[in-house]
Amino acid sequence: MQTPRVLIVSLALVVAGFVAALASVATEPASATGSAGSAVSAGWLHTCALTTGAGAKCWGHNDYGQLGIGTTIDSSTPVSVTGLTSGVAAVSGGWSRACALTTGGGVKCWGGNFYGQLGNGPSAPSSSSTPVDVTGLTSGVAAVSAGSNHVCALTTGGGVKCWGENGWGQLGIGTTTGPEMCGANACSTIPANVCAQATCAQPLNGVAIVSAGWTHTCALTTGGGVKCWGDNSYGQLGNGTTTNSSTPVDVTGLASGVAAVSAGGQHACALTTGGGVKCWGRNDAGQLGDGTTTNNSTPVDVTELTTGVAAVSAGTFHTCALTTSGGLKCWGPNGWGQLGNGTTMGSSTAVNVTGLTGPKPTPTPLPPKDPDLDTDGDTMANSADTDDDNDACPDVDEVQTSAGSELSGGLRNPHDGNDYFNPTGDGLNRIDDVLLIVQAYFDDDDDGNPGLPPYEPGYDPGTDRTYVGPLAWNLGPPNGLQRVDDILNSVKHYFHDCS
Predict the structure, then answer these.
(1) Phi, psi of 186 (to 5 degrees)
(2) Helix, strand, coil percentages, rounded to 5, for the chain
C-alpha cells in the first residue's frame, strides 16, 4: 500500500497576468451542489477553468502535461487545452492531471498516468500532454471529480465509476489488491463500477454527487445521505471507526438532510439542507473547524456555521465555505496564507477571508424629530430631551442602524466611523478594535494609562468588582478579566458610553 504524497496547493504560478488572460473565463459560479462539476478547479500546482465559450484553459506547472497543450512547458498564464476550445461542461484538476466533462456527456483526461488515472487502458503511456478519451465514458456522464491519484465519474443513471490508484480501496470496488497492478500499486486503468455493498453483488446507484479526495471518496445519495470509501486512517469515512473500506459505508448521522459533500485530503465536509457545515476525519491543523485539533471519525459541527452556508469545499488540509450573504470563511492551517485573512496563523474555527466578507450594514439615520413633540412620553419636549429612548444613554452617543438598537447592532465604533458593534454580524471586524475598547474601559481615570492608579489596578469590570492584585488588564494570571462576560461588558459599556 503506497504512502500518499503530500499535496501542497500553490497559487504562485497563477498570479501573473491572471486578470488580463482570464477576460474570457466563465464568471457564472458552479452549482452549490456540484452536480455538474466546476467552472474553475485547482490541482496540485496547476489550475484549469471553463471559458464562457465552453472551452478549457489551464495554467501553472506542466511537468506531466497537465496543462493539456501538447508540451511539458510551464505556463504562468492560461493556455487553451488542445482540442477543447469548445464543447466543455466542467473541469476537475487532480494531482498531476486534469479531466473535463464534455457537453456530450463524455470524459477526457490528460497529464500523469502512472496508476491509470487517465482511464485509457493498461497499454497507455505513463502520461499524455493532450486529452484522451476515458475508456467507455464517451457519453452518459453527469459529473467528474479528480482526486490525488484516482478519478471518479457520476453517470447520468446515478451510478459511480472510478479509475486510477486503489491501494486504499478508494475506487470502491471491493478490493485493495487489484484489479490490476501499476508497478507495486493496485490500480484500475479503466473505469470500474463502485459497489453498492461489501459483496459487490450490485453497483452503487442513486447517487447525486461524487467527490474524490486524497485516498478516499465520498458520495451524496439522491435521498440526501452520505457514503464514503477508501482510506480511513483518520476517520475520514465518518463511520465511527478508523478501518479502511473498499466499499461504501454510511457516514454516521448523515443518512439524510445533506445538500452537498466535499472530500479533502484526509477529511471531508458536508453541507446540510439547513445551511450548516459538518466535517469529519483528520483535524491536527483544525481542518474540521470545531475549535479543536482532535481527529473525529464522525461528523462534528463547524463552529458558528450551523446555518447560513451556501457551499463548502474541503482542500488538502484546509476548508472554505461560502455564506448565503456572499461572504467567504476558511479554517485550518495557514502557513501559506491559505485562509486569506491577512495572516499566516492557523485557525480551528472559521475566519473571514479579507475583502470577501459580504456587504456591510448601511447605517440608517434616525428619523427627524419634531422639536415641539414629546416622542418618548417623558413629559419633556424633543428640543430639550437629550435621551429620547430613555435608556440612560445620551442621544449624542447613539447612532442607530437598520440592524436595531444600540446594543443589538446600532452603535458606531468611535475609532472607525464605518465600523458598528453588532454581535450577530461583522461589526467588530478587527481585533485591535476590541483591544482598544477593553483598554479604554479599564482606564477609568482617563489618564491614558490603563492599569495605573488610582482606579484601575486589578478591578474586574463585572458586577462583582473582584480585586485580583496589582495587574489589571493582561494576558496571564493574575488578571482582571476573569470571565468572558467581563470582556463583553467592557465592549458594551464603551459603545454605550453609559454606566
Answers:
(1) -65, 145
(2) 10, 30, 60
Average pLDDT, integer, range 75-93: 96
Check if the beta carbon of residue 227 is closer than 8 Å to that of residue 239: no
- Contacting residues for 228 by C-beta, under 8 A, at least 6 apart: 216, 217, 218, 219, 236, 237, 238, 239, 245, 248, 249, 251, 263, 268
Residues sharing a CB contact under 8 Å with residue 374, sequence separation 6 or more, in sequence order = 380, 381, 382, 385
- Cβ contact 170:185 at 8 Å: no
Do the Cβ atoms of 217 and 238 come closer than 8 Å? no
Round to whole Å and give the CA distance between 357 and 107: 36
| Pairwise CA distance, residues 150 & 172, whole Å | 11
Rounded (5°) CA angle 33-65-142: 25
Counted residue by residue, the chain has a size of 499
Residue 262 and residue 212: Cα distance in Å, rounded? 8
Contact 315, 9 (CB under 8 A): yes
Is residue 250 left, alpha or beta, with left meaning phi > 0 and alpha meaning psi from -120 to 50? beta
- Report how far residue 19's alpha carbon sits from residue 16's, in angstroms, rounded to the nearest whole number: 8
Tell me the β-bridge partners of 192.
162
Q: Which amino acid is at 132?
A: V
Can you name the residues that pair with 163 across neighbouring β-strands?
Answer: 151
Residue 364 and residue 398: Cα distance in Å, rounded? Answer: 12
pTM of the full predicted structure? 0.69
pLDDT in tens, 285-342: 999 999 999 999 999 999 999 999 999 999 999 999 999 999 999 999 999 999 999 8
- At 126, is the secondary structure helix, strand, or coil? coil
The three-point CA angle 37-146-184 to 5° equals 165
CA distances, 85 to each of 53, 80, 246, 373 (Å): 8, 6, 37, 71
| Strand ordering across the sheet containing 267-272 | 258-263, 267-272, 277-281, 296-301
E runs forming strands in 46-114: 46-50, 56-60, 75-80, 88-93, 97-102, 107-112
From edge to edge, which strands make up the β-sheet containing 207-212?
207-212, 216-221, 226-230, 245-250
Q: Is 150 left (phi over 0), alpha (psi -120 to 50) or beta?
A: beta
Position 439: which residue type?
A: Q
Report the distance separating Cα 281 and Cα 215, nearest Å: 12
Q: Which residues have C-beta within 8 Å of that of residue 8, sequence separation ≥ 6? A: 44, 316, 336
- Write the pLDDT tens digit of every residue in 472-481: 333 334 444 4
**What pLDDT sits at residue 394?**
53
Using CA atoms, how far apart are residues 56 and 404, in angstroms rounded to an integer?
Answer: 48
**Ramachandran region, residue 132 (left: φ > 0; alpha: ψ -120 to 50; beta: rest):** beta
